[in-house]
Specification:
With 169 residues, the chain is α/β, with parallel strands linked by helices. The chain has one domain. The strands form two sheets. The protein has a five-stranded mixed beta sheet, covered by helices on one side. The chain is globular.
């Protein structure tokens, strides 16, 4: 009997079973932005815990942030609200994104904007997977008009740019 007890003790001491609650991708994304100047306003995960939609607000949009969120393979919707970007970023790595929103409106009720322009070549770096683009609250300059003008009619139709109404103050 002591021998069986000894074997059981040895076996259990050599076997370590760890039960840990699996984190979904939204928790991982929240941890990534915790302590940064960018706030994760909203994140939606599918039934498998994969992030499918995320909304970021405030702070500096840098290439490291784009590269981090591009690692999430089923992320289809991205909202970027009032993010400052002083360095050029490329969005090409966001290959699964279908709906891309960039918003610089301060107050949606009494429309006011921060008087920012989209950087040159920003629109050109969107991946071809994007099916819909929403741009709100930015001043339109010649660079942005040129980028929109260089899109083919098919790209403009696909990205619903044909239906955009430009409002100005």
């Amino acid at each position: 009997m002591n021998f069986k007890l000894f074997i059981l003790f040895v076996f259990t001491s050599l076997t370590c079973v760890v039960f840990a609650e699996e984190e979904d991708e939204c928790t991982t994304i929240d941890n990534y932005f915790n302590g940064s100047d960018i706030t994760l306003e909203n994140c939606i995960a599918d039934e498998n815990g994969k992030a499918i939609s995320l909304e970021l607000k405030g702070g500096k949009l840098i290439q490291d942030v784009i590269d981090e969120i591009s690692d999430y393979s089923v992320l289809e919707t991205i909202y970027l609200n009032k993010l400052d970007y002083t360095e050029e970023v490329t969005l090409k790595s966001l290959t699964n994104v279908k709906f891309f929103v960039i918003n610089d409106v301060i107050n949606a009720i009494n429309i006011s904007i921060r008087n920012n322009y989209l950087k040159k070549n920003f629109i050109n770096t969107l991946p071809s997977t994007v099916e819909k683009i929403e741009i709100a609250g930015f001043l339109i300059n010649q660079n942005t008009l040129n980028e929109l003008g260089n899109m083919t009619l098919n790209e403009m139709y696909k990205n619903n740019i044909i239906t955009i109404t430009l409002n100005y103050i």
